[in-house]
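Possible regression after last week's pipeline update?

I re-ran a chain I had predicted before the update to compare outputs. Posting the input and the new output here so someone can diff against the archived version. Not blocking, just want to make sure nothing changed silently.
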Amino acid sequence: MAVGEHLGYLFTGAWSLLVGAAILQSDVVPAWLGVVGIVVGAVLALCSLEFVGPFERGGWKVAAAMTPVIYIAWSL
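New output (post-update):
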């Protein structure tokens, strides 16, 4: 995993968390979309830790399995 890919996951997750929080404070769209954005953003930011720390060599298998699924959820 390159630095750009790691930062891409991290910043996409952070952006999704912030947008989800903004949606919860607004009446323009349903609040459940904000909750989904917060959950998806948090998991996406967590997936950015796939090759960090003790998982640097082999990778964190849970994050490797969750990343494609959470990106599909994010896309929807």
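Follow-up from reviewer: compared with the archived run. The CA atoms of residues 22 and 34 lie 7 Å apart. Marking as no regression found.
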